[in-house]
């Protein structure tokens, strides 16, 4: 990432004043291909959902029949994929939006629009008249639950804990592989408390008439403020202790025998009965907010304990991403459960009803049989606004929020070998919480932008409009980086992985599916010429010399001092091949060229020679210069033609090539191709090898597996090397044995990062 390119400070606010100032086609994207609609209309916000098909370029490789260079041809083909669009806007603009949708609809393939929410009846006639679609109303709670299940299952960083006074306000949670059971506390006008046990089994187990409507109504009477958001603004500036009677106001301090501290509220609005003075609007709004939140929090805690539920999600218009309500609810839950239960909030809470209504209308397509992924290029993110505005200053009126989700080709599941899937966190460093690291990496990606643009254009030399598209990519990704600098929590935990994935999404958005394709092709052709010579050299070495040489080969192509003592010490775990052979090794591979051909393949050859089956897992789609499954299939066939060991491995089904399900330079072991997981189980895999900075260092460095594992990488970034206590081109070679399991050689060698 040596190229420089600083972002400017310009930004766009997604607002409209009875008309849409952001280009409508950037809000209602792919509308001409829309197939199915659903709508959720609340008291103030409308959430529209629709399904579309998106045509985009994909990179394909095809092997040449003849021997020689190039090994394969590269082509870019058009492919159609499914995408879900969710758009949120204020009800005041519903007519303008419906007009735009009507004018751009082409062959929707449906005559019905699924609708939910309290406003569905109110706007029924308007929708039917404008769109010519019959409104089919769906049960609000059913839609809410279905939508909640969908986002929890498909968006890894969907749920978060809110910590107002922490360095990072938003602490995103790892979603348990089994999302059930959970408690959903929906705070609308009143409160509904729902126990969810499965996709279709849920029960309203309680509730209260004291909810968001109570706060709004009483607040309007007390402050003469009619707008809900303005009432919350008042509350955020108030001091509730001016109005509330505290424990210390009664006892002069804490009440130790009952464990009550002096600053606890003894009576909400207690001082108003005896005070001679008036109270400010801000103080009354804050007192009211605490009163409502504490009541809801205590109810939620009692129901959670009664039903033995530890996961409690809060939603509804009372929450809606407002920091002040999330803080008061969090405080209440922490107090009443003494920290045993956490208040969990959802990034896309506002879309749940629309998502659920859409899923009800799409049952014949069975969307839940697929895995879906958030498209960062088309999603505005949590509390997305102009970067100049902080969260408490954001103007919600007229703001358009978008969420896009792409249907993935492969169904994704956990790696069966994760020691504890519920506690697995892929990323090594959370940039949301580490301000110094965040600033470094954001600057790094900004400076690399010019180089990425040049590579994108170079990958399509015969297409004149590639330059124009590359500039659009530059603008979009730069804007994403600006947003993440101001709101690092926009897409969940900010990590090196999410920055890389956002860049890949933006490249794909502007039809640059594989900017490194020609570079990879050249490097693969070159490395193949030296394969036989490399294997012959290895065969002439003693067993121990060969093991070290194989490890050096895996790390080939990186410049560092092989003679340094630290490197020699770090490679001691290479002797893991000393004992009885492993039954099956799963190898997550990294780069094309020298890495895969002269590094990984000789290592694979050694494993096969020992009687170990090998599963090579490579990316399903392109990312940087990483080898894809399509490329690896061709490379392996060519290597097999000159190497009888590899040829026999393929012939006897002892060498298997499988897609990982990923199109990222990093690796999330909780979202892998279902076929790969099946192969891992069937082959009784007992060794996992993860290679490269993205997969073994930026992610999975702390991953715990239930079998032996080897994580290997060269640190090619000086800042990261220094942060980890090493030097540029230091080696990470981390061999781990799970507790209670002896290694193959019963080695006492520690896990050794250098």
TrEMBL record:
Its main location: cytoplasm. The keyword ATP-binding applies. The keyword tRNA processing does not apply. Gene3D superfamilies: 3.30.420.40, 3.30.420.510, AF1104-like, Uncharacterised protein PF01937, DUF89, domain 2, Uncharacterised protein PF01937, DUF89, domain 3. InterPro entries: ARMT-1-like_metal-bd_sf, ARMT1-like_metal-bd, At2g17340_3_helix_bundle, ATPase_NBD, PanK_long, Type_II_PanK. One of its GO terms (biological process) is coenzyme A biosynthetic process. Residues 446-727 form the Damage-control phosphatase ARMT1-like metal-binding domain. Residues 1-20 are annotated as: Disordered. Pfam families: ARMT1-like_dom, Fumble. It catalyses: (R)-4'-phosphopantetheine sulfonate + H2O = (R)-pantetheine sulfonate + phosphate; (R)-4'-phospho-S-sulfopantetheine + H2O = (R)-S-sulfopantetheine + phosphate; (R)-4'-phosphopantetheine + H2O = (R)-pantetheine + phosphate. One of its GO terms (molecular function) is metal ion binding. It is found in: Cytoplasm. Keywords: Acetylation, ATP-binding, Coenzyme A biosynthesis, Cytoplasm, Hydrolase, Manganese, Metal-binding, Nickel, Nitration, Nucleotide-binding, Phosphoprotein. Its cofactor is Mn(2+); Ni(2+). It comes from the Eukaryota. One of its GO terms (cellular component) is nucleus. Phosphatase which shows a preference for 4'-phosphopantetheine and its oxidatively damaged forms (sulfonate or S-sulfonate), providing strong indirect evidence that the phosphatase activity pre-empts damage in the coenzyme A (CoA) pathway. Hydrolyzing excess 4'-phosphopantetheine could constitute a directed overflow mechanism to prevent its oxidation to the S-sulfonate, sulfonate, or other forms. Hydrolyzing 4'-phosphopantetheine sulfonate or S-sulfonate would forestall their conversion to inactive forms of CoA and acyl carrier protein. In the N-terminal section; belongs to the type II pantothenate kinase family. Homodimer. Interacts with PKM. NCBIfam families: panK_eukar. This is 4'-phosphopantetheine phosphatase. The gene is pank4.
